Fold these 2 entries.
Entry 1:
Amino acid sequence: MDNVTYGLTMTILGMGGTIVSLWIISLAMNLLKRLFPYVPEKKEKTEEGDVGSH
Amino acid sequence: MWEAIEIGLSGLAVGARNLALPNAVMMGVGFLLLYLGIKKGFEPLLLVPIGFGAFLVNLPLSGLMEEGGIFRVLFNTGIANELYPLLIFVGIGAMTDFGPLLENPKILLLGAAGQFGIFLTLALALVFGFSKLEAAAIGIIGACDGPTAIYVTSKYAPHLLAAVSVAAYSYMSLVPIIQPPIIRLLTTREEKVIRMEAIRPTVSKQTKLLFPVIVALIGGLIAPRGIPLIGMICLGNFMKESGVVSRLTKASENEIANIVTLFLGLTIGATMQGETFLRVQTLVIFSLGLLAICIDTAAGIMFGKIMKVLSGGKINPMIGAAGISAFPMSARVVQVQGQRYNPQNYLLMHAMGANTGGQIGSVMAAAVMLSIIEGMGII
C-alpha cells in the first residue's frame, strides 16, 4: 500500500472510527443512566431529644 | 612509582577525556527539564526523573544503558514490554472520576474531536518521509497522553521512543502555554462569555460502576488491539467505583503509580543519549507533535461550536479545548479562560467532563489506529 492511500485511509477511518466508538459509548452511558436512575439519598430525620438523651 | 601514579591519574581523567559534545548538549537538555520541572512546576513528577535520567546517561562511560546497566534493566523490565505505561493506566483509572462526563454523555464527543490531530499528523509525518509505523508513533503525540504514546511507540517504532515520549510529556506540561492563544483566537467574545449551568449530581452508583465495564466491552469489540490500554484504565476505575478494594485502589493510584512513574521517567531520560537523540529527525518529530496538539485543540473548539449551535447556545465552545487527554491541566486552562472573560462563569466541571472524555478518547483513538493498521496487514 502506498503512503497516500495509507495516510488518507488512516485519517478517514481513524477519525471516523474514534468518533463512532465514542458516540456508541455515549449512547451506552445514556442507557445506563436510564436503567439505573439517580435516587437522592434521603436525609434521616433526627428526632428531638436524640442528641444527648443517654 | 611515578609511572603508576600517572597511570592512576589517567584512569581518573578518563571520564572527562571521553566527554563528547552531543553528550554535553544532552546534559544541558536534562538540566533544562529539571529547571522546568522544579522552577516552573511543569509536570515535575515526570520531568525531574526524565531530566536526571538524561543527565546521568550522558555522563561519559556511565554504562547505564549497556546490557546489565541499571537503566537497561529498568528499560527491559517495563518499557520494552509496555508494562510501565499499562500500570500507569491502572493508576489513572483509579484516580479519575468520570462523574462529570456521565452527567452529560454528549461531551464525550469532544474527546473524539480532541484526537483529530493524531490522524492528521500521521498523514503529515508520511509526507516528511517517515515510515508508516513511525508516522503512527509520531501522530500519537497528539493524544497528549504520555503512557499511550510510550505504549504505541515502544511497540512499533522503538527507535523513536526518546523523541516521541519526551515530546509527548513536554507538550503535556506545556498545555497551559500552548492552548490559551488557540482558544482566544478561535472563539468570539460572545462565545467566551457563555455561562453553563452548574452540574448537579444525577448519576447513580450503579451507572458509575458499570461505566468502565461498558467502555472496555465496546472499546474491546471495536478495537481489540487496544484492549490492554482500555482494559487497564477501566480496571483501575472499576476498582475505585466498586468501593470494596480500597487497598488496591489506593496502591494503584499511589504506591504503584509513584514507583512506576519514577522508573518510567528515568528510563525515558535514559533513552536521550546524545548520539541518538541529537538529530534533525528529533526536531521534526517535536514540530509535528506540537502541530498535533494545536490541531487537537482547534478541532475540539470547532466541535464545541457545533455543539453550541445544536444545544441552542447552552454549551460554551471553549470546553472543546479540554477534549484532549492532558488531565486536569486542560480543564484548568478552560476554567481560567472562562473566568477571564466572565468572572461569574464556572466552566471547570464541564471542562473536567470533556477532559475525562479526552482520556477515553485518546486511548480509543490509539486502539482504533492500531486495529486499522493491523487490519491493513502492516503489523
Note: Chain B has a mean pLDDT of 92.
Entry 2:
Amino acid sequence: MKIVFKKKRSFRGLSLPENKITAEKSIEDLPVPGEAVIPLQQNIGASCEFMVRRGDMVKTGQKIADSKGYVSAPIHSSISGEVSKIIKMVNPITSNVMDAAVIKSDGEDSRVECDELFNIRESDDFFSLKRIIGSIDKEEVLKKIREAGIVGLGGAAFPTHVKLKPPPEKKIYTIILNGCECEPFITSDHRVMLEKGREVLMGLYIIFKLLSPQNVYIGIEDNKKDAIEHLEKLIVMMNLDDLFKIVSLKSRYPMGAEKTLIKTITGRSVPMGGLPMDVGVIVNNIATAKSIYDAVIEGKPLIERVVTVTGAITNPKNLKVRLGTSIRSLIEKCGGYRSEFNSIIAGGPMMGISFANTDFPVTKGTNCILVKKRRLQDEQNCINCGRCIDACPMDLMPLMYVRNTKKKKFEACKEYYIDNCIECGACSYVCPANIPIVGYIKTCKSELSKK
Amino acid sequence: MEVKNNNILISHAPHIWRGFSTGKIMYMVVFALLFPTAASIYFFGYYAIYLILTSVVTAVLTEFVIKKLRRRRFIMDGSAVITGLLFALTLPPRLPLWMAALGSFFAIAIAKEAFGGLGYNIFNPALAGRAFLTMCFSREMTTWVIPPNFNYDAITGATPLGENFTYQADKISLYKDLFFGNTGGSLGETSAMLILVGALILIAFHVIDWRIPVFYIGVVAFGSFIMGKDVLLQVLAGGLMIGAFFMATDYVTSPVTRRGRIIFGIGLGVLTVLIRNFSNMPEGVSFSILIMNAFAPLIDKYVKLKPFGFYKKRKNA
C-alpha cells in the first residue's frame, strides 16, 4: 500500500536558508546535572503550585508541582536530591515573575518507582505492543499522559491531555503528526524520528486509539528524506500501513505552523480564532508522541527532552538533556563558542526568544539553543513595498500593524485581524527596511489585552 | 527594539534577516534604469549626460542638505539617485541645465522631504518635479527634437503623439523606430526595448510587481482600440512604457496589496486614455500617475485582504 504522498504548499510563506548543520549528528546524552532549576510555568494555561518545600528530598520523576486547573500539566523533578531554594525568575515568554525550584543533586539519580509498568522487554514485538495499547482504558491513558506532565513539545507547550480529549460534539477525523521542523537550524525532531521512530509511531498509535480518527498523517518536509524513508520502513514493519500515511511536504516556512500544516494536508482552513478541532483535526508534535509512548508504556514522566545546540558552537550537537539543566552546561558539553556571537536564542531563529546570558534552564518547550552573531541594522522607514503581505502565511497586512502601533491606534489593528497573527516572523525576515514587525505586533497585542 | 546588555542582544524574533534591504532594492532599480539612460545618451547625444548628471547630483545634494537641516541621519539608500535619474529621463532633450536642477530640487525638497522623506511622500517625486517644470516653463518643456545621433544642432519636431506629427515612411518602420527609440520625446521614454529590458530584470528579481504595468498598458491598449486609435502607436509612443514600469510601480506611491495594484493599474490606464483623447495635452502619463498616487492611500484603506480562515466566520455569523 502506498504510504508516502506528496503535497504542494497552500500558503505564501518563504523559503529560508536551512542551516541544519546538526542533521547528521546522533543524539548524545548529557550527564545528569548537579543542579536543576525548574520553573513553575512551563505550559499554556493555569500555572502550577509547588507541592514541595525548601529542604525536601525529591527523587527523579517525582511530581513537585501541580495545579487544579484543567488546562495544566504537573511538573516533575528531573533529578534526585534536595530542594535547596525557591527562587524568582522572569518568564521569558510572558515577562511575568514566576517561582522556580532549585534542586541540588545527590548524585544518585534514584527514580520514583512506577507502578503498573508493562513489561515491554519481554513483549518487544510490535504486535503484542499494539495489543497492549488496544487493551488500555482510554481514561487511564489520558490520566497517565496528564500525570506525566506532557505538553506540546513543539514550542507552544499546550497540555497534551487537554488536546487529546476534545469536547464530545467535536468529531476528530484526522490526526496529523507534525514532523516538519520548518525553522532553520533545529534538528531535534529530525533526530528523534530517525533514532526513536518506533517509539514515535507507537505514541502515534496510542493517540490513534484514543481518538479513532479516519486518517492519520505524518507530515514531514522533503528536506528530511531519510526520516521519511525510515518511518516508511517502520510503518511497513509494524503493519500499520493501512492506518498511517506519510505526507512529504515542500520545505517552506512556516510549514510546521498548525494552521498552515492542516491547510496543506487536509485542504481545510482553521477558522479565525478557532482551534484545529473545529475542522476535525488534531496536530501533535513528533517529540510529544515519543513522550506519550514513554509515559503510557514505560511510565516515565516528562523529565528530559532532545535539544539542538547549534550556531557559533565548536561542536554543534543534538543533546538529550534533563529539564532544568542550565544552558551553560549544554554549551560547555558542545565545546563552547566557536566564534564571536551576540545573541543567545532559545528556540529557532524565526520564533525563538533571546536571552541575556546562559543562566536559564531547559524547559519543556526548549527545542533548540542557537548562538549566533547578528548584524546590527537600524530600522528604516516603511517604503510600502508589500513584501510582508506577500510573505504572510495568514494573509494579513503586517505593515498596517506597524503603522497603527506607531500612532498608538491599537484598535485599528483589530480591523486588520491582528489576533490571527501567529507571530511566525516571516514579515520581519523579508522587510527591506528591517522593521521588527513582530515586535510591533507583540506590543500591540499586549496593549489590546490590557484593555 | 534592541537592548544592549554585556554585548548580548535582547531582541524580538526573528533573529535572522534576509538582508534584501531598501538600499539594495533602490540600486537594482538604478541598474535597471541604466538601460533607458543608455538609450537617451545614444539618441540625444552628450547633452543628455549633462542633464542626467545635473539632476542626479542636485537630487542627492538636496537630500543631504535637507536631512542635515532636519537633523536626521542621511542614508545613501539610493532613493534620491532614482528620483534624480527618473526625473532626468522625463525631461525634453534640450532643456536648459538650470531648469533641470530646479526641477530636481523641487522633486526632493518639496515632493519628498517636505512630506517626511522616503516612505511618506504622497506623489512620485520625479513626476511632481516634472509637473512643476511643466507649469513654470511650459514652452521649454514641450520643445521636442528628432534624435540627432550626436548632432548637437538638432531639429525640433513633434512627438509621435502630437497632433502635427507626420511620418513619411510606412507604419512598420514607424513601429520599429518607436520600439528601438529612434523618435522624438523625453530623454528616457523613446526606446521601448531598453525600458523593457530593465523592467524585465526588475520583475524577474521580484523588485517590482508586474500587475501595475500589465494592467496599465493593457487598459491603455484596450481604450485606444475602442477610441479607434492606432493601438501599437499609443502603447509604444510617449511616456507610457517608462511610466508604467518605473514610475507607477514606485512602492511608496502605489497600493500595497495585489488587488489594490490591479485597481491602481486600471485607474491609470483609464485616466491616460481620457487625457490623451479628450484633453488638449498630447500626453497624459505623468498626470495620470500623479492623480492615481493621490488615490493610492484610499485604495489601501478599502482593499483589505481576507485573512486565513475568514470564510468560516462569515458563514457562522
Note: The first helix of chain B runs from residue 22 to 44.
